[in-house]
Amino acid sequence: MSTKSKSIETKTDFNQDERLKKVSKLRLLLNRPELGALGGAILVFIFFGIVAGDTGMFSAYGVLNFLDVSANLGIIAIAAAMLMIGGEFDLSIGSMIGFAGICIAIPAIYWGWPLWMSIIFAFSMAVLVGYFNGILVVKTGLPSFIVTLAMLFILRGATLALTRLITGRTQVPGLRVLIEGDPLAWIFATDTFKWVFTWLGSMNLIALRTDGTPLATGIPPSVIWFIALAIITTWILMKTRYGNWIFASGGDKNGANNVGVPVGRVKISLFIGTAVAATIFATIQVLDAGSADTMRGTLKELEAIAAAVVGGCLLTGGYGSAIGAAFGALIFGTVSMGIFYTDVDTDWFKVFLGAMMLIAVIFNNYIRRKVTESK
Amino acid sequence: MSDYLVQFNNISKFFGKVIALKDVTMKLKKGEIMCLLGDNGAGKSTLIKTLAGVHRPDEGEIIVEEKKTIFDSPKDALDMGIATVYQDLALVSLMSVTRNFFMGREPMKGPPFFRTFDIEKANKIAAERMGQIGIDVRDPSQAVGTMSGGERQCLAISRAIYFGAKVLVLDEPTSALGVHQASVVLKYIVKAASQGLAVILITHNVHHAYPVGNSFTVLNRGKSLGTYAKKDITREKLLSMMAGGEELNKLEVELQEMNRSSAN
Ligand SMILES: Nc1ncnc2c1ncn2[C@@H]1O[C@H](COP(=O)(O)OP(=O)(O)O)[C@@H](O)[C@H]1O
Ligand SMILES: [Mg+2]
């Protein structure tokens, strides 16, 4: 085939009257969607380095603290970014977090299931919810914004109603004792690299408690999950066929469909991705807190979308990056914790979040025009 | 045995009460450029969508290489070597040249379960293919949105040929292009046909169709006004057969008169 059509050549030069545009290095760099978020993250660190450099913010304990917050948000922001690149939104992420929490807690506490079984149950429910979101959007052609807004209410309502029905309250405590010895729970509940911190402590390089153990005990599981997810999703987007399909489905679903991309399947899988990410988030937090709260995750979907947008995702789909969303989450996490170390009232955090998003949207829009503008 | 590659026999297609096509018959040989002409709304796109697997004809049959064929999906048609380049080109302007070229048919490398999109190979092929038609893609990772309309059209056609098209269906490939770019695209189409592809070229511009076409089918309000070999019909006759052709002739006369009076 390749030899057959090799001689199809018309050596007419388009450049005669097309005024070849020089692609500058800067322009190539600007084509990377995560550039803005990376710059933003660097600025944030410089800022706090100056105003809070001598506080505890950059101690081992302080760093792990803001990394933990960033990582939790990052887990759902990455999934939200993948879905946005695929051209859709999921507003039910926050409600899914609450729902997944009680899917773990109620079977484990009230029905006597082993913890691992409850966790698997929660993830199965997540796959179902994600599949349902996806199939509804794909089959009806309705905007995912509306479909998942409905799911936001349905899931949160069901979480509250079912929990009150079964337990008579809105919180389910008592999980912590079940973690020990569970074959699955440790994946979501273990601090890693403890020896590093013990060693640092013994060398008196990091802060210690009064009993001599280090204040920062290890890398929290959220951070490990976050880094792993960021690497895997970036690899998927850049290096796999499925990644190309995600960009194509979000960029132009009819076009993609016409050349044989299974757009529906791609979108459904991405909705399953956000629901599963919400469940990872929920599992880590529920095991950490030892209890499930029906209101857990409220408004998290908006923070996740905000981080994805700051990370370079376009609201129209087809463009963005997972690593950008990770930087976006890092910015939000760092600022939300860092603000405690400054004299600034923490109320200002939301103002910052909103302003960041606005700047990001304007910046992204400019980039999109640059990237797509026709000669 | 007939030497037709594709035959449409008495195709009809209805959208509710709208009769988009009625009893349309059209035959196409290997290496032939068949121009499908007609005004907006004549049913040109609908006809080729029955061949592309987008619509199923309500009446009539499509015969591809002697076999009566029913396409359930665009993929079915693609698998039979029928490649359609739509007006929207099926290009994603935010994606790179390479990613567009191989969209849905990415070359893979690596062991099972770790198979990855072979971006290097894809870049090489895309740049090579675009180079063959005189488009210098120095950076195949540049977004398609930065290309000109003619370049995009050629990318879409080149992609279809690369993936082994036997029948190339082009829906209004020149309608959005300037004169120079349109002529480049038309030249490329002629080359493709000379390699043995059958081409269906849809247009409502007789001046684009006439120089390159071997035969011409004119659609008018869902019905075929017949198929004519080039030697049997003039450009003027084709123009007047298309709805609005008369009006354009009249307009031409009027304009000439205006010119004459203003010259005085
Ligand atoms: N999917 C559809 N549903 C309903 N009507 C349609 C559809 N597609 C085309 N039509 C109608 O069929 C007629 C022919 O359209 P089309 O094939 O697009 O014309 P052309 O490509 O020649 O401009 C038009 O009247 C159009 O409105
Ligand atoms: Mg049309």
Strand content of chain A: under 5%
The CATH class label of chain A is Mainly Alpha
Give the rounded overall mean pLDDT of chain B. 88
Record the strand order, biggest sheet of chain B. 6-9-10-3-11-12
Terminal-residue CA separation of chain A: 32 Å
Please, what is the CATH homologous superfamily of the largest domain in chain B?
Answer: P-loop containing nucleotide triphosphate hydrolases
Distinct helical segment count of chain B? 9
Largest sheet of chain A: 2 strands, antiparallel
Q: How many strands appear in the DSSP assignment of chain B?
A: 12
Q: Which percent bin holds the helix content of chain B?
A: 25-40%
Q: In angstroms, what is the radius of gyration of chain B?
A: 20 Å
N-to-C series of helices and strands of chain B: EEEHEEHEHEEHHEHEHEEHH
Overall SS class of chain B:
alpha/beta
Largest inter-chain contact set: A-B, 50 and 53 residues
Q: What spatial order of strands do you see in the largest sheet of chain A?
A: 1-2
Topology of chain A as a string of helices (H) and strands (E): HHHHHHEHHHHHHHEHHH
Number of domains of chain B: 2
The set of bound ligands, ions and cofactors reads: adenosine-5'-diphosphate, magnesium ion
Q: Characterize the biggest β-sheet of chain B.
A: 6 strands, mixed
